[in-house]
Task: inverse folding
């Protein structure tokens, strides 16, 4: 997930060069009492190779610079000589993009008394960043977090910082922190006018869900689906939060139907398999009205062929089921959650809502009832009431389903 380009360090180098009052080739002579007291104090042994290296660095003649830098490093004895040798080394290794070799030079510059205070912060920021990258390559997760946090504190802006911290936190089981750093990376990318990769969202969402924090999970799903509102991503999100909708018990069947309904309302029923499976799930759950409407919709949009044997078998069974069932008017007059479910399946949302409200007042399963109340209200265009109903699903197997339905209220439908 390396999204950022390598840092050029232009600011750091500017600070480093302005810290030099006099270059080695023009250093103070021992008997010049009027010379600048801040001038670099260097020996002839150091001055000669340093002067050659300095000229070569300015000319970007790195082949000439390298042996002279090596000689200057060997000759460096005092702080001034060590400072300038390290500065020359840094220029060479920056030109090569050799981050590991930049570390020793930065270590010297970050503590050298010749380095200006502001430059020390910049050098230390870069040093901690590079040490963090080295720790990441060795899977030393605690060190990654320590170094990257310090680099950020000192002003390093590289986008790799939140990415590597997110990975390090995830590797140590700190899901809250991992998701937060992924969010930092996404926002940093947006601040540069770039769009963060989908993989960053998909990395963070399971971490957010694993925290058990409903608001955080909702926020992440909404964040993702608003930025990437595609059929594929709605299907992925539904799969992530719909892991429990696999059981054969009543709760599992309800979850499965309601997640198919969510795919339908977001226009993310993708293919023949979605329509055929959805219709079969509705029919086998005693909701033939919904099975018929799903098959008819799939046929109309060309996603479920009229010759499909599974779809045709389900359609025939559903038609027989409707004929053998009481009329919708009768169901509405009888009341009860089961009849409310039938009305919801048949698209009679107003009467379904009335029965759900009555059942809720009598003390029925508030989580299941509010989930279906929310669906009816959303279909009726009563968005704020629907959101309240979905938020009222607090515990049990329907929490994640209600969460996704709530997200669908705040994301535009797919075309």
Result:
């Amino acid at each position: 997930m390396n999204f950022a380009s390598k840092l050029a360090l232009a600011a750091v180098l500017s600070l480093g060069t302005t810290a030099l009052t006099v270059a080695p080739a023009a250093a103070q002579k021992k008997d010049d009492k009027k010379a600048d007291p801040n001038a670099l104090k260097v020996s002839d042994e150091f001055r000669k190779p340093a002067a050659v290296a300095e000229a070569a660095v300015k000319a970007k003649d790195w082949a000439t610079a390298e042996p002279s830098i090596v000689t200057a490093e060997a000759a460096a004895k005092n702080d001034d000589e060590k400072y300038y040798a390290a500065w020359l080394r840094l220029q060479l290794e920056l030109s090569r993009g050799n981050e590991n070799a930049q570390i020793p030079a930065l270590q010297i510059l970050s503590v050298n008394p010749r380095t200006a205070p502001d430059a020390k912060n910049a050098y230390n920021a870069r040093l901690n960043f590079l040490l963090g990258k080295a720790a990441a390559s060795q899977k030393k997760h605690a060190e990654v977090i320590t170094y990257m946090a310090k680099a950020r504190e000192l002003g390093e802006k590289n986008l790799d910082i939140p990415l590597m911290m997110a990975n390090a936190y995830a590797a140590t089981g700190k899901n809250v922190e991992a998701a937060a750093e992924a969010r930092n990376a996404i926002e940093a990318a947006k601040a540069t006018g770039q769009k963060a990769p989908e993989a960053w969202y998909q990395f963070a969402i399971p971490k957010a869900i694993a925290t058990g924090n409903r608001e955080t999970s909702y926020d992440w799903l909404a964040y993702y689906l608003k930025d990437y509102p595609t059929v594929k991503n709605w299907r992925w999100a539904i799969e992530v939060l719909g892991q429990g909708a696999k059981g054969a018990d009543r709760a599992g069947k309800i979850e499965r139907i309601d997640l198919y309904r969510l795919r339908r309302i977001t226009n993310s029923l993708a293919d023949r398999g979605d329509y055929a499976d959805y219709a079969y799930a509705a029919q086998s759950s005693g909701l033939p009205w919904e099975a018929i409407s799903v098959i008819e919709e799939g046929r109309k949009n060309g996603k479920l062929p009229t010759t499909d044997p599974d779809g045709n078998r389900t359609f025939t069974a559903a038609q027989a089921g409707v004929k053998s069932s009481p009329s919708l008017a009768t169901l509405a007059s009888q009341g009860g959650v089961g009849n409310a479910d039938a009305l919801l399946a048949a698209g009679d949302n107003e009467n379904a809502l009335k029965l759900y409200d009555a059942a809720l007042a009598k003390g029925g399963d508030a989580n299941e009832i509010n989930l279906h109340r929310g669906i009816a209200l959303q279909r009726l265009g009563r968005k704020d009431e629907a959101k309240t109903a979905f938020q009222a699903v607090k515990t049990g197997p329907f929490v994640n389903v209600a969460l996704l339905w709530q997200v669908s209220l705040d994301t535009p439908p797919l075309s």
Remarks:
- The two ends are 30 Å apart (CA to CA).
- Confidence is low (pLDDT under 50) at residues 1-31.
